[in-house]
């Protein structure tokens, strides 16, 4: 069963005041992805990242996160990329193809750019499960993605 990870401040061995983060947000399932974005920004700013060092870019859907992450990760001034999206299972195998493709693509973007590219994509069976993980009873996975990005910068 899902449970919230620690939220709020994390121990950082590097100064985050000069680090720049790109957050790529899928516009599909906007109610969910906006909540994830708010959680990610809260997680970053609570740990000393300046709001002006958080660059938001939108993509039409979750599948497009990979290319957006690659493009932003290739920028010299970006230190980490956070990908936020939500895929809710329907009646066709489309769900499986999207989830597999974006998971592979986000990993590829990280390997090609040699920067943290964080998979903050909810893959749920229904909308309620997504809401529960976007600020609901299981916390905010957007915030957790931000804390993961910080953790990887400490690696």
Automatic annotation (TrEMBL):
Q: Which UniProt keywords apply?
A: Riboflavin biosynthesis, Transferase
Pull one GO CC term from this UniProt entry.
Answer: cytosol
Q: Which residues form a coiled coil?
A: none
What's the protein called, per UniProt? Answer: 6,7-dimethyl-8-ribityllumazine synthase
Kindly list the residue ranges recorded as spanning the membrane.
Answer: none
GO BP terms: riboflavin biosynthetic process
Entry's Gene Ontology molecular function annotations:
6,7-dimethyl-8-ribityllumazine synthase activity
